[in-house]
Amino acid sequence: MSAIRILIAEDNDLVSLTLEEQLKGLGYDVIGIARSGVEAVNLAGRLKPDLIMMDIRMPEMEGTEAAARIRDQFPVPIIMLTAYADKDTVRKAEAAGALAYLVKPINEIELPPAINIALARFKEMQTLRNQVDELEESLEARKLIERAKGILMQRLGLNERDAYERLRQRARDKRAKMKDIAQAIIEAEELLGS
Asked: Model-level pTM greater than 0.85?
C-alpha cells in the first residue's frame, strides 16, 4: 500500500519543517508545502493530496476560507492546525469542514490517530454523499416515470400496469434507461401540447 500523500499548509517555516519531518518519520508522503491560503487552494487542485494539514491563520486567505474552497472544489479531508483552542476558532474550523483539529505545538504521537480518524470520517461522508446522490437520482427517475405513465394512460387509454409495461418494453427495445424513455415521452407531450 502506498503512503498517504499529505499537503501541508503552514506559513511558519519552523512549524512546517518540523511537521514535515514528523510526518515523513511516520511513513507519510509530504507532497508539498503551501505558505498561504491561496497557494494551498492551488496546490490542492494540482497535487490532489489524500489529506491536507492546514493552519487556520494564513496570509492572503485564512486557512478556514481556503479549506472551505478546497472542500467545494475538490473534496479532501482537512486537519486544521492552530495555536488557538478558543470556541470561536474551533467553530470556524468546523464550519470550514475540518475533520480534525490539532493545537500547536503538535505532538508527533497525535498525528497518526488524527490522520486515521480524518480519513475514516471523510470516507464515511463520501459514502453518504454518494448514497444521497443515488437516492435523489432514483427519486427523480421515479417522478419522470410516473409522469410518463400518466401521459400514456391518458393518451392511449391504458391502465397503470400496462403503461408501466409499455415504458419498460420500450426501454428494453431501445437499450435505454426507463428514465430516458420517460423523459422523451414528457418532452414529446410538451411539444405536442395537451
From this structure: no
Q: What is the mean pLDDT of residues 10-17?
A: 90
The confidence band for 1, taking pLDDT boundaries of 50, 70 and 90, is: low
Same domain, 16 and 96: yes
Same domain for 55 and 140, yes or no, is no
Stated as kind and residue range, the H or E segment containing 32 is: strand 29-34
Buried-state track 30-60, b at ≥16 Cβ within 10 A, e below 16: bbbbbbbbbbbbebbeeeebbbbbbbbbbee
The residue-averaged pLDDT of 162-173 equals 88
Domain ranges, residue 77: 5-106
Number of domains in the chain: 2
11, 38 in Cβ contact below 8 A?
no
Helix (H, G, I), strand (E, B) or coil at 108: helix
d(CA 106, CA 112): 12
